[in-house]
Inverse folding.
């Protein structure tokens, strides 16, 4: 039997379709033990289906799910050492906080004294000590969320699956919970598989991000990799805002776009190959028109708090710039770039 | 206030159509016709509970027994049906629930007569049984026939409230239970059945109560000794012309049903508070 030294879950050639439409198309993914992995993508990309396949709630049409090298593809959820935080928490409305958390342990027929110890420890961890007798329906969204976390983690799963758990919370609470979840994950040292469509959430919490689109994995990497080296315009655009424009690869370390030839850090494309250029808005530096390699007219300046969002029109391309400096609307302005801020991608043939 | 003004017509309606008849029945139950005209007395109640001639109490007890059988059978048949129905995909589900409701559009009497033709000595069921070489059943004009007729007539009232509760269950709760290690069987008892309990209680209420006071079914399908309390009451009004005694029996049943409901809802509430009721 094949042994994967540190991958706890492996998805092999997973395919799933509903009504002849592929939801997942040949997914291959290795999830390392104790890592925080995020499945990121727009709605309908297959991220939740992937999570449900790991949880055992959906079986794939083809392919295998391996847990520490053992095939668990057809194993029902209750036989997997995996627990899930559901999107709407799915707390049992007829049980109080304590009994909700104790549910899994009682199924395992653990004695009540041990259950009490474990439940109290969990309540301490999620800061809800004293809520034991409360009715779960009387709790706020944030509190219900914590109970759901406690109810799952009290079973000491190898893997915790989280399906957009913070979607229903307000921004401030969401930020707090992001940090708390990350802390819990590191403290307990268990694998988290997290589903979200929020790129910022993914970048904040993850060790590994899997970007998905239309049932296919577009890119797997660390948040830094995904942000700094997106493999294609879709990933670039999905992870943060980007300027994406057509260019021509002149030769190694040299690329032509926006009416100029730029020095870059990329190699390995064919000479004169048509490529896509991706430039992050914060990588464009404002300067005077005579010093800029790109020149344009400032169309709008919007204050965004930390930075200004400046839109500059150059011929028929619309540049988005994030800068701490403001510019004067209607004036001509110059833009400059460092070579390593120019990301070159293979042009995808549009269908 | 404006709001209470809107409620006013409803209050009038309720007074005329709900409260007044009940009060009238209670009033009649204390009246007895004598040679000197109608007098107020408790003779009717004395007559019902007379230990010398307990035939009325025996009929009442029997009515409770038969409607209890009917309720239990309806629950045992209705729950699995509602469960299967709720798990089907919506298009099939709608057709099937339509089939369950369809007989209810027919007249109650017609439906019961239909059972008579099925159960008769030379009826459809017995003809089929003899054709395949089995002995014919002799259930027409017995209590069994009455129970069958009652179950048939009241089954939809058990299925529908349970089915309604089951379709309302958030499926993620079932998944959460399985996620936490409960097998399908345990999940059924700990989550699905638990969440459907309000449907079960209202199903029981909707079957048991009317089954106690039903009449006609026993007259069509039952034998001479299958008479139920509903028939006795009807006879008082329509044949004997003793409204007083008929009303007294109605009042007694009403009180018994109220007591029954009280016990039932307190058990239900207790179960709600304890959370875990089974396993």
């Amino acid at each position: 039997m094949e042994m994967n030294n540190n991958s706890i879950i492996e998805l092999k050639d997973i395919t799933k379709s509903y009504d002849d439409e592929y939801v997942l198309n040949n997914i291959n993914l290795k999830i390392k033990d104790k890592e925080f992995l995020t499945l990121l993508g727009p709605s309908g990309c297959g991220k939740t289906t992937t999570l449900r396949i790991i949880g055992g709630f959906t079986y794939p049409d083809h392919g295998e799910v391996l847990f520490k090298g053992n095939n668990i593809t057809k194993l029902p959820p209750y036989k997997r050492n995996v627990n899930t935080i559901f999107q709407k928490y799915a707390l049992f409305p007829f049980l109080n906080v304590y009994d909700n958390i104790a549910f899994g342990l009682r199924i395992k027929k653990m004695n009540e004294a041990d259950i009490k110890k474990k439940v109290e420890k969990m309540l301490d961890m999620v800061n809800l000590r004293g809520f034991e007798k409360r009715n779960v329906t009387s709790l706020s969204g944030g509190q219900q969320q914590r109970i759901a976390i406690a109810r799952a983690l009290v079973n000491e799963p190898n893997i915790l699956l989280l399906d957009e758990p913070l979607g229903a919370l307000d921004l401030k609470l969401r930020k707090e919970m992001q940090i708390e979840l990350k802390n819990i994950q590191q403290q307990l040292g268990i694998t988290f598989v997290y589903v979200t469509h929020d790129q910022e959430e993914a970048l904040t919490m993850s060790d590994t991000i899997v970007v998905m689109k239309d049932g296919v994995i577009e890119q797997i990497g660390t948040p830094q990799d995904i942000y700094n080296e997106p493999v294609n315009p879709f990933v670039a655009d999905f992870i943060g805002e980007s300027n994406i424009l057509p260019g021509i690869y002149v030769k190694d370390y040299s690329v032509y776009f926006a009416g100029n030839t730029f020095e870059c850090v990329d190699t390995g494309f064919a000479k004169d190959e048509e490529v896509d250029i991706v430039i992050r808005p914060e990588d464009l530096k404002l300067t005077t028109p005579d010093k800029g390699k790109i020149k344009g007219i400032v169309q709008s300046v919007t204050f965004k708090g930390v930075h200004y969002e400046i839109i500059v029109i150059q011929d028929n391309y619309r540049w988005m710039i994030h800068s701490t400096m403001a510019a004067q609307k209607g004036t001509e302005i110059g833009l400059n770039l460092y070579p390593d801020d120019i990301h070159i991608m293979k042009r995808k043939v549009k269908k | 206030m404006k709001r209470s003004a809107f409620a006013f017509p409803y209050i009038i309606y309720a007074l005329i159509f709900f409260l007044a008849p009940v009060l009238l029945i209670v009033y009649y139950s204390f009246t007895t016709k004598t040679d000197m005209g109608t007098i107020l007395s408790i003779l009717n109640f004395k007559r019902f509970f007379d230990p010398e001639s307990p035939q009325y109490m025996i009929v009442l007890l029997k009515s409770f027994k038969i409607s209890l059988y009917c309720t239990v059978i309806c629950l045992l048949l209705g729950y699995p049906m509602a469960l299967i129905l709720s798990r089907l995909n919506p298009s099939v589900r709608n057709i099937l629930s339509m089939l369950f409701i369809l007989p209810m559009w027919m007249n109650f009497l017609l439906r019961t007569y239909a059972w008579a033709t099925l159960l008769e000595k030379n009826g459809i069921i017995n003809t089929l049984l003899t054709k395949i070489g089995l002995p014919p059943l002799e259930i027409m004009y017995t209590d069994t026939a009455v129970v069958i007729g009652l179950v048939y007539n009241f089954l939809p009232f058990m299925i529908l409230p349970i089915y309604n509760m089951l379709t309302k269950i958030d499926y993620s709760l079932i998944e959460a239970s399985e996620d936490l290690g409960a097998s399908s069987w345990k999940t059924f008892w700990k989550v699905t059945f638990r969440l459907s309990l309000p449907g079960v209680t209202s199903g029981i209420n909707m079957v048991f109560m009317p089954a106690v006071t039903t009449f006609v079914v026993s007259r069509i399908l039952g034998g001479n000794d299958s008479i139920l309390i509903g028939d006795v009451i009807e006879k008082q009004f329509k044949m004997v012309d003793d409204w007083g005694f008929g009303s007294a029996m109605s009042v007694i049943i009403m009180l018994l049903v109220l007591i029954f409901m009280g016990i039932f809802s307190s058990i239900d509430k207790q179960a709600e508070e304890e959370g875990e009721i089974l396993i």
Remarks:
- The first strand of chain A starts at residue 7 and ends at 18.
- Chain A touches chain B at residues 55-57, 76-78, 82-84, 86-88, 90-96, 99, 103-104, 107-108, 151-152, 155 (CB under 8 Å).
